[in-house]
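quick one before i forget lol
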Amino acid sequence: MVRVLVIMLFCVSVAHTAKCAQLLQPGDIINLGAFRLPQGTQGCGNEYQCTFSHGGKVIALGNDRQSLYVSSHDWSDTYAARVSIPNPVNTAIVENMNTAILIEAFADITEGHDENVVEISTNVTPGDTVIGGMIAYDGKLYGTLHIAFDNYSGADATVRTGFRHSLTLSETGTFVGNFKQFLSGYLGKIPTSLQMVLGGDLYNGLGPLSIITRASMGPSMRSWVADDMVDTSEIITTHSLISYPDGHRTLGEYANTGPANPYISPADRIWGTAIIDGTDTVIFVGMHGTGDWCYKSTCTGELYPVEPSGNEAKPNIAQVWAYDINDLIAVYSGHVVTAEDVSAGRFISGSYPNNTVLSAGSTVMPYNVKPYAVWELEVSAGWVNDKFGSIAYDSDGGLLYISQPGVDNNANPLINVFTINIAAPTCSDQVQNGDETGVDCGGSCPACSTPGTLQNKAFTFGTAPMNFIEE
């Protein structure tokens, strides 16, 4: 077996002397409206297993791009069904929205294996595990599990959480799992052009959650290779790209009693993610608390007519956390901070609002990256709760489907639909895009100064990410 050193020449590896692609801004994700899901029990009489009521926390795009997989009631959240995608209607009146049609009835996509998540003696019992993420990829439905409730007793409990299943929900004997480890939470696909420099073709993340030290205090992201899901006795190799564990609270302290933190609050939950094709942006979506932190009986006033069961920071908003994919490539490649990075304030340490710029010569870690922007996301109707934000991303159609649980009648979810404004390539945008072979040259643009090479202004050989592949 030969280990071949491959030097990937991406402008993503330098201190942004030129961009590779667009970084999305708030006006680039545009709400087209929403649609409803069928009411009542669907496919069986079980009021928890076969209903969208109190469900929809996890969704995934069907292989046909015309349907969605949707998880069931929170209390039977290893069940999922598949529904059609009707035209969205942009209205605040839910009753005027179109309703999806059930295509495949609810089925347990773990085939009863959710109880195999726990290998050690804990307070966790079968039924406490729920689907954390789903994604249809390479002819299979991949999924993750996590412990739902507060009787979690330690970081070693959730160790067998990754699985795959047939795309046909009712097809039994197709479950393969449970795989170790760090495979909890939301799932996303890594575009082919980025798989070498991010360490896989799929990624996942989890956090923040109740019992905060079991998950990231902010968005998180781990890449891995789908084809590694073969032997359940083996641990799946994952690569941490974003993570804010206890001890590295870069985005801020968990219980912040000072001014509202735009990045994180104790009430925040993040359930969706997507790397947006044609851009350098990876987004995370969830609920963000914009007010003062309180806990149970300390939550008083008109925002809290009923004592909450945990942390709160109302009013809550739907929020996007947007990261530059270049920074994640820097983490994966073990990038060493340059003087240019320091000047740009590219990587940080410490804890918000007292962050400091990471010093030159430091190796970039998953907790040294920060969102380049955060912003409120407009939803069609109603409010958002702590289950908001699961994403099904149609990269071919440039559409985001985002679940908004609990806001329809009988606590059914709505599915919001967004289009993405991606700038058309030009020969003067300082971006290598379209059919260009270099930055603003080659293809349909003027020839590059040296045919077959990339414009040197966008690249620094000494900082190109290096990756080993095995042949």
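fyi Residues 1-21+430-471 form one domain.
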